[in-house]
Amino acid sequence: MTVHDADQLRCSAKGCTLDAVWALRWNNPRLHTADRRKTWLACDEHREHLASFLDARSFLRDVVPVETVVGEA
Fold first, then answer.
1. Long-range contacts: 1-8, Cβ < 8 Å, 24+?
2. Mean pLDDT by 10 residues, the chain (73 residues)
3. How far apart are CA 43 and CA 29, in angstroms?
4. Which of 18, 26, 55, 59 has its CA 20 to 30 A from that of 32?
5. Is the pTM of this model over 0.85?
């Protein structure tokens, strides 16, 4: 995912239209190299739910403020 504009970022939770506040960086070690990171975005309300989903599968690598990933390729 390439993140360009923080003003247009929405939460990744199904049906949520709130602005993203958090970037949940993850990878599936069976599919991705160790340094590869995929990103889900989360509002404050869905951060814990999305993080728990990823963590239960041992996919979650870190959670950072969305501003830190804006402009990343």
1. 1/38, 1/39, 2/72, 2/73, 3/39, 3/66, 3/69, 3/70, 3/71, 3/72, 4/70, 4/71, 5/70, 6/66, 6/67, 6/70
2. 62 96 96 93 98 97 92 64
3. 26
4. 18
5. no
